[in-house]
């Protein structure tokens, strides 16, 4: 693992990867490097325009790449279902649950969920469940969910998953990222009980320069905060390419284990991929089961293939 970079990614020829939020940032960097190694990559993007621009840019950077665009709005369960229904392949080797929103002003998804919880967790929970038959049918498949070191700021509140009692943008973000890790923990447990060799793992980018930091303050017109975020991105953050390495490691390295959490090696901030610390509440079996049950009820997506 020391010094691991994109050159160490094994050959991905014949494999199919879906990367959510692949139009920019670490999602785009991950999709490009997988395509460079021979994978057929599906760029799952909310904006068809930005997604199309990203696909064209990828094809320019990796001539001969197999890359295609599919519309996916994780904040709309109808869009998630449409994406899964129209998925054209009988295999899915890599599902990278990367897309997310951060520290937005209070809002709700198309289905009435708090935006950060609904997009970052529930959207990916539903997507993974709907694509599960293709994942289980693929030997050696992996599901990689991108969380954040910020998960350590707050545990979920199972009685207030949508932050209806009190909304604090950073607490809501941290809870959504804790939910990501609890989802991976419970998914890994259920896959093992099913006897499946599918690996469910998590990763985080550390502090990487992407548009995630500025989206929320731009929505509110907070120009001073936006400038502060841009200065941080310029002088303290690592590049989106470096931030994508933990995700790529979790998706492709041969020694990745179920329910592992990979992040940058230097204090979880920057550097080559390494095992990352995680809050103990993200490995709580009872919390994982309760969040899973609530997520099935809220989304209407049940993982029937892992039952029985």
TrEMBL record:
Give the source lineage, highest ranks first: Bacteria, Bacillati, Actinomycetota, Actinomycetes, Kitasatosporales
InterPro entries membership: NAD(P)-bd_dom_sf (IPR036291), SDR_fam (IPR002347)
The EC class name is oxidoreductase
Q: Which GO molecular function entries does the Swiss-Prot or TrEMBL record give?
A: oxidoreductase activity
The name this protein goes by in its record: Fatty acyl-CoA reductase
Q: Which gene encodes it?
A: acr1_3
**Keyword annotations from UniProtKB, A to Z:** Oxidoreductase
Listed Pfam families: adh_short
Q: Does the keyword Oxidoreductase feature in the UniProt annotation?
A: yes
Per the UniProt entry, the Enzyme Commission number(s) are 1.2.1.-
NCBIfam families per record: PRK06197.1 (NF004846)
């Amino acid at each position: 693992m020391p010094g691991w970079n994109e050159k160490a990614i094994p050959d991905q020829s014949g494999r199919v990867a879906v990367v959510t939020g692949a139009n920019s940032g670490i999602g785009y960097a991950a999709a490009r490097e997988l395509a460079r190694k021979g994978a057929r990559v599906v760029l799952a993007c909310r904006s068809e325009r930005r997604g199309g621009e990203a696909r064209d840019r990828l094809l320019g950077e990796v001539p001969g790449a197999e890359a295609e665009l599919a519309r996916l709005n994780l904040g709309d369960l109808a869009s998630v279902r449409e994406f899964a229904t129209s998925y054209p392949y009988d295999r899915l080797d890599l599902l990278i649950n990367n897309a997310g929103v951060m520290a937005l002003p209070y809002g709700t998804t198309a289905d009435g969920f708090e935006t950060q919880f609904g997009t970052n967790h529930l959207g990916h929970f539903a997507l993974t469940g709907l694509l599960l038959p293709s994942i289980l049918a693929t030997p050696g498949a992996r599901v990689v969910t991108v969380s954040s070191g910020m998960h350590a700021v707050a545990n979920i509140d199972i009685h207030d998953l949508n932050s209806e009692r009190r909304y604090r943008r950073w607490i809501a973000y941290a809870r959504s990222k804790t939910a990501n890790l609890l989802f991976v923990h419970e998914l890994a447990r259920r896959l093992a009980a099913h006897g499946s060799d599918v690996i469910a793992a998590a990763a985080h980018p550390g502090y990487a320069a992407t548009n995630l930091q500025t989206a929320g303050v731009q929505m509110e017109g907070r120009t001073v905060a936006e400038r502060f975020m841009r200065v941080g991105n310029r002088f303290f953050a690592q590049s989106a390419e470096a931030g994508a390495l933990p995700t790529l490691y979790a998706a492709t390295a041969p020694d990745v284990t179920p329910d592992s959490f990979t992040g940058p090696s230097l204090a979880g901030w920057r550097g080559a991929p390494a095992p990352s610390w995680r809050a103990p509440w993200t490995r709580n079996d009872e919390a994982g089961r309760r969040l899973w049950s609530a997520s099935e009820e809220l989304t209407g997506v049940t993982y029937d293939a892992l039952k029985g």
